[in-house]
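Chain A, query sequence.
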Amino acid sequence: MALRSLNNALPDAIQRPKKVAKVSAIPLDKASSPGSVENMNPTLLPNAADQSSEYIVSEDLKPLGDPEARVKTLREELASKNWIEVCGALNDVRRLALHHSSLLQPILEQVMKIIEKSMKNPRSALCKTAIMTSADIFHSFGHLLMSMSDQTMILDNLLLQLLLKASQDKRFVCEEAAKVLEKMAESIPRLPLVNKLQPYVSHSNLRVRAKAGTAISKIVSNMSYIEMKDFGIPNLLQIAAELLNDRLPEAREASRSIICSIYREISQVTDTKEDNGDGAAVAVLWRDLCASILPPNRAHSVEKIVFL
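Chain A, predicted structure.
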């Protein structure tokens, strides 16, 4: 069979060059128009938070030039809907707390409510600034806040927010909150502070329980036997026993720390003549103490921690 000629085959499709879109330069008279990048709202630009907020450590906060005038405008700025403006106002609250505390004291309660509200804000920059502000407030007004808390829930509410923020996943926020919780004991009396923290050991949020337990354990580790006795050694043992079986390792570690701190102080006040240097008297006293305060299963678990 003769082969068919291929000369009449259709030619390959001709590929036409694609049109290239022309990019024209923005005229100079339009470069400054309301829709241009230069005139866009900075809060809509990427990384605006990083560019507009700054985290100043307490040591670098300088006194205000005219603190009396600043106090008059402070509340209005703290109530602003512009979060960057609120951050600036909170930094001035910190300056007032550290260098002009007498001027801040009359409006302290209102300021504390705004700090609590700012901690709840989803903007991490504002939240962290509020946490840093609370640290300076505690530093300057620790004893006063404790007396205020007898009349209002202001300290309790702030404490809960710190525990929640210390429990969240945003690292630079949770680390700052944890730092504040640790430093609170330096400014606020220990025993009332442990009283405030104790209810959160039973909180429904397991991370809050762990953070509360850690905060208590660090306070207890610096207590003397007299302080423990004043607070109530049975109360401390019950806190430790509750945390010992918690799901989070952090809570269990806090429990062990509390137990060892109590045992350390009991050992130091036990009569060395009765002890004969072998620790037998302390061990008996410790066993009897746990058995008299806790249910049998918990008493045994707590008792053996110090001998592990």
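The chain has two domains: 54-188, 189-308. The chain is about 65% helix and 0% strand.
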